[in-house]
């Protein structure tokens, strides 16, 4: 058997934000010379910055995304309740209370190997939620019993320390020198890409993957409305930013049977004239 052929090339994309983010991601995926084996993207902000419509969900499936993770904004578009039960590659945070619509993890077969993706919410500076420190290990134990070879986690959280500590806890608990069950732990939510990508205990890690959205913005939102809201503390509806230049943030990871061996940050720009698919450029 060719061991090189067993390796899984995975791309994880940070929060896709609005129409510009969706268009740029489609351009980015089309531009790839070597298509990855599996693409995961966080889509809780994909429909005008808040939530995900069924139309946009189907649009992003067609673009080539294999698994969709989310966060606390996944419920913002109310038609989510009409299709989430049937959207088998869309997962919501697993630590919502029992009985919540949707699922918090999903198993995929990639190159003949079982790969599971788990989505979870943090609790520091976030709305009240069940403890990820209890719920996620329970789910990992359940998946381990099913013979899952690889687990990828999207931890949607605000606090850097919480992301770092939780990732270390899971790596210390489930990974050994010879075999890492947790192959990837990727932070989302802040929309600001961190520069701390690394392989830790056989696990590919980044504190925050960043976001896919307008460069000239405040984490994807229009500057003027953000300024009024932040400077006055008065209610102000956020508006999605419009710009010809969109950034694509994420990570590319290489996984073998026992561990992750490579991680690289993705930080490119897309020139989307008239919000159509445009030219992808490497960021400087």
Summarize the topology.
Elements: H1 3-6, E1 8-13, E2 15-16, H2 18-31, E3 38-42, H3 54-63, E4 67-69, H4 80-83, E5 105-110, E6 113-121, H5 132-145, E7 150-156, H6 160-174, E8 182-188, E9 198-200, E10 203-206, E11 211-214, H7 223-232, E12 245-255, E13 260-271, E14 279-282
Parallel strand pairs: 1-3, 2-11, 3-4, 6-7, 7-8, 8-10
Antiparallel strand pairs: 1-12, 5-6, 9-10, 11-12, 12-13, 13-14
Structural class: alpha/beta
CATH architecture: 4-Layer Sandwich
Unreliable sequence segments? none
Briefly, what CATH class? Alpha Beta
Q: Tell me the name of the CATH homologous superfamily.
A: Metallo-dependent phosphatases
Strand content: 25-35%
- Quickly count the helices: 7
* Overall number of strands: 14
Mean pLDDT, to the nearest integer, reads 94
Rg for CA atoms: 18 Å
Distance between the termini: 40 Å
- Portion of residues within helices: 25-40%
Number of domains: 1
What do you see in this structure?
- The protein has 284 residues and is an alpha/beta fold.
- The protein has a single domain (3-272), classed as Metallo-dependent phosphatases (Purple Acid Phosphatase, chain A, domain 2).
- Helices cover 25% and strands 29% of the residues.
- The protein has seven helices and 14 strands.
- The protein has helices at 3-6, 18-31, 54-63, 80-83, 132-145, 160-174, 223-232, and strands spanning 8-13, 15-16, 38-42, 67-69, 105-110, 113-121, 150-156, 182-188, 198-200, 203-206, 211-214, 245-255, 260-271, 279-282.
- The strands form two sheets. Strands 1, 2, 3, 4, 11, 12, 13 and 14 form an eight-stranded mixed sheet that branches. Strands 5-6-7-8-10-9 form a six-stranded mixed sheet, with helices on one face.
- A hairpin with a 2-residue loop joins strand 5 and strand 6.
- The longest helix is centred in the middle third of the chain and has 15 residues, at 160-174.
- It is globular.
- The termini are far apart.
- 45% of the residues are buried.
């Amino acid at each position: 058997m060719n061991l090189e052929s067993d390796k899984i090339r995975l791309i994880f994309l940070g929060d896709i934000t609005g129409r510009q983010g969706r268009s740029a991601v489609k351009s980015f995926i089309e531009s790839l010379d070597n298509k990855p084996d599996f693409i995961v993207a966080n889509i809780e902000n994909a429909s005008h910055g808040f939530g995900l419509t069924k139309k946009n969900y189907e649009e992003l499936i067609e673009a080539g995304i294999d698994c969709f993770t989310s966060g606390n904004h996944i419920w913002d578009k109310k038609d989510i309740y009409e299709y989430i039960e049937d959207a088998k590659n869309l997962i919501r945070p697993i630590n919502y209370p029992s009985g919540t619509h949707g699922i918090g993890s999903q198993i995929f077969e990639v190159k003949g190997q079982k790969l599971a993706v788990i989505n979870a919410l943090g609790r520091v500076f976030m709305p009240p939620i069940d403890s990820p420190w209890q719920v996620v290990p329970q789910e990992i134990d359940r998946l381990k019993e099913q013979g899952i070879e690889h687990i990828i986690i999207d931890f949607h959280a605000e606090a850097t320390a919480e992301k770092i500590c939780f990732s270390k806890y899971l790596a210390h608990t489930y990974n050994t020198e010879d075999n890492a069950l947790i192959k990837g732990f990727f932070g989302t939510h802040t929309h600001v890409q961190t520069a701390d990508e690394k392989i830790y205990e056989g696990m590919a890690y980044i504190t925050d993957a960043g976001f896919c959205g307008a460069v000239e913005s405040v984490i994807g939102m229009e500057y003027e409305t953000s300024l009024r809201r932040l400077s006055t503390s008065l209610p102000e509806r956020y508006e999605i930013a419009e710009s010809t230049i969109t950034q694509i943030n994420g990570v590319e990871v290489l996984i073998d049977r026992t561990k992750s061996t490579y991680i690289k940050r993705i930080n490119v720009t897309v020139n989307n004239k008239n919000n159509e698919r445009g030219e992808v450029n490497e960021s400087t």
